[in-house]
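Feature request, filed as a ticket because there's no other form

It would be nice if the structure record came with a short human-readable summary line next to the tokens. Right now we just get the raw output. Example of a typical job, pasted below so the devs can see what we mean:
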Amino acid sequence: MRRALLLTALVPLLAAGCSEPHSPAVATAGTGGSTATSGTAAPPVSARPKESDYDKALRYTRCMTENGAKMPDPVEGEPLMTGDVVVADEPMSAVEARLAAFGKCRQLMPATWPVKADPKEVARSAAYNRCMKQHGVPVYEPEADGMWHAPTNSDYMQTPEYRAAEQDCRHLVDDPANDTPENR
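Raw output as currently delivered:
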């Protein structure tokens, strides 16, 4: 369970599609609608530059803040907070506000988000990841630079196939969640 919550918080986001490196200091918040003011039409959709994962994440975090769930701007290499994360000692009103904002902003998240992998966690999870792969579950590994692209949508973790593989493999991870009654 703790692993699922961690992956959900990571944005979760690890499929493929990493954008080119860029400087967050020059990233923009998105393309939006027509911005023409001199009577000229906006360029056709196909002529607009592709929005980077950083730009998408920035639009998402700003949407969350605008909708009552204060969230810092994204930082590549650090987890991107999703709306469905459990935060210790958080008042229920804050949880409800975040879930409501998440419902409005979720579609703005990039498909994946780069997170710096902790080498100790990678080593600790190696046997578990091999087991999950043997069960046909995709496992996302860090690249040579230590970054892994976490999926922002954790719905795949709710499938019967994923749950069965997780149950069969959980004993391979030293995690306090393994001692809870539902995981015995």
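Something like this underneath would help us a lot:
The radius of gyration is 19 Å.
The first helix runs from residue 2 to 10.
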